[in-house]
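re: ur msg from earlier - yeah i can do the nicotinamide-adenine-dinucleotide complex, just paste it... oh wait u already did. ok heres what im feeding in:
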Amino acid sequence: MCPTIVPLMRETKKENVVYFTSLLENMKILVATEKPFARKAVEGIRGIVEGAGYELALLEKYTDKAQLLEAVADVDALIVRSDKVTREVIDAAKNLKIVVRAGAGYDNVDLAAATERGIVVMNTPGQNSNAVAELAVAMMIFMARNRFTPGTGTEIQGKTLGIHAYGNVGRLVGRKGKALGMEVVAYDPFITDPAVFEADGVRQVASVEELYRASDYLSLHIPATEQTRGSIGYDLMMSMPAGATLVNTARKEVIDEEGLRRALTERADLKYATDIAAGIQPELDEQFGKRVFATAKKMGAETAEANINAGLAAASQIVDFFKTGNTRFQVNK
Ligand code: NAD
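and the outut:
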């Protein structure tokens, strides 16, 4: 439970109507990005922040943690991408009230440390989902066609696509899979309403084992949590149909890498493509050659559109929080 900082409101009455105005003025908002936003996104963020009467500070392409520790010292709000907001960063940010991770996964923010200080942590769900979904589909086709090298490939049409976690990205991958003529099955224990799956013409399966058993292509979209860390490994991969491909645009932490290596060793028909290189990626590349693929750097959300959407959403959410106390996207409630 987070003892959230709620913006203090000034109450005024005019012609019997009560108005509330935030007392949080002169807020300083820092955008700290090792991997900067696109210029257009930064301009948009500036427009939103300065338009609200607040100050924008930028720390881009920093190379040393000390730079981040110094930059956060006097800020009230922080926007990050994959940047690590550790306890040390939070301790150094004495005025910090809100951190927004421009993106979906927020495992780069120390939620416990933020919560202890009453700092609100938000993400910007859905803003980069299409970019990630397009990459997942692209990786399926890439692997089906021998990584665009000579030789006879296969088609994805008519194959079964399994979606592990039917959230913002998973749903888009499911719909794109349907549009490409795939059978789509999905598993998400936290979605209890079957209508969510039915609306997309997707068959909901009852267990993770059933999902992997059915999937020629398995697209992974679970968040990295205590429960999911290292949960995808040998047994699930070994249960997949002949010639199956596991596509991971989620997180490397959800993979049991030794289990993955063992399954790829024992089954020469299995393939693995990931947007988040495994800790043992060089060894996997060496041992399995074209059967494994990792993007050079995580690039699922790296489109101009996703950049702009997530950056602007982060800025708007901070302004809204300061002005009205809106905590809709808070993840440490
Ligand atoms: P989301 O929050 O919209 O959806 C996550 C889904 O996972 C939810 O539907 C939830 O019910 C489900 N879920 C949670 N725990 C589960 C479990 N144990 N088993 C099955 N389902 C479970 O998130 P999203 O926007 O769809 O993103 C999914 C993940 O993709 C993120 O957590 C993030 O780690 C990753 N991601 C990667 C990139 C990239 O650049 N490659 C970009 C965005 C997101």
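cool cool. The chain has a mean pLDDT of 95. ping me if u need the other ligands too
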